[in-house]
Amino acid sequence: MSVPVADITLKMIDFYKGNHHDINHFLKVYAYAKTLGEKELATREERDLLEVTAILHDIAIPYCLKTYGHAQGPYQEREGIPMAKEFLKEFDLPAPFVEKVAWLVGHHHTLTGVTMKEHRLLLEADYLVNADEGNAPKEQIENAMETFFESETGKRMLRSIYLKK
């Protein structure tokens, strides 16, 4: 299976209609996820799944803001599932792959019951970006290192980015 990651990325850039924050956010999450995947995942299919999900993970934010006036995690997860499926239709990807992407988009704020390595790495990539965007205090980052991060690559990135000063 060949996944057109660059085409999906370009379509997502178009989707955000010039919203620099959202475009930059998903591109940073994608970059971290790509690095995490290359170091922590065994197969190309696993890496493709992680990368495509990183690109689409916040697809529901514009809709949630317009519809609900906020984009809290549970709303993003619920609304993101059908949006991700619709977004990927034109790329002729296998249905099981699309279902997994949609499931991950629908769980990208769910921190419990994480059994898929791609899910864990998506959470770590998103945290790496959110810690910067939200100016997370050092204590919170240290706590995440001890209680949340599981991958050695994610811990290395967290230390290098936030804890070495």
Task: Compose a concise summary of this entry.
The protein has helices at residues 5-15, 20-40, 44-56, 61-68, 73-88, 95-105, 117-133, 138-147, 152-163. By secondary structure, the chain is mostly helical.
Describe the model:
This protein has helices at 5-15, 20-40, 44-56, 61-68, 73-88, 95-105, 117-133, 138-147, 152-163. It is mostly helical. It has one domain (5-163): Hypothetical protein af1432, CATH 1.10.3210.10. It starts with a helix and ends with a helix.
Outline, from the CA principal axes?
globular
Oligomer: single chain
* Strand elements, count: 0
Radius of gyration: 15 Å
Helix-and-strand structural type: mainly alpha
Helical stretch count?
9
Low-confidence stretches: none
Biggest sheet layout: none
Assigned CATH class: Mainly Alpha
Please tag this protein with its features.
165 residues, globular, Hypothetical protein af1432, 9 helices
Spell out the blueprint of helices and strands.
Layout: H1 5-15, H2 20-40, H3 44-56, H4 61-68, H5 73-88, H6 95-105, H7 117-133, H8 138-147, H9 152-163
Helix pairs in contact: 1-3, 2-3, 2-7, 3-6, 3-7, 5-6, 7-9, 8-9
